[in-house]
C-alpha cells in the first residue's frame, strides 16, 4: 500500500501516469482534484524510490500497469 493513495485507485492512477496523461485528465477520470493527483504521484514516487517519470513508467510496465495486468 502506498501511503496516502487510495488502494482501489492505485492501479488506475499508475496506468494513467504510465500513459503520460496530464494531471488534469487523470483527475477528471478518477473524479479527484488535480492537486490530489500531484500529491499521489509524489507519494508513489517516494514510496517506490523513483526520481523521474520515465523511471516510474518503467516500474509500471514491469508490474503490468501498461497492459492492464494490475
Low-confidence runs of at least 5 consecutive residues:
none
Q: Per DSSP, what share of the residues sits in E-state strands of 2 or more residues?
A: under 5%
Q: N- to C-terminal separation?
A: 14 Å
User: Count of helices?
Assistant: 4
Structure explained in plain terms:
By secondary structure, this protein is mainly α. Helix content is 60%, strand content 0%. It contains four helices and no strands. The chain has helices at 10-18, 23-30, 34-48, 53-62. Helix 1 packs across helix 4 and helix 2 crosses helix 3 (34-48). The longest helix is centred in the middle third of the chain and has 15 residues, at 34-48. The chain is globular. It starts with 9 loop residues before the first helix and ends in an 8-residue tail after the last helix. The mean pLDDT is 78.
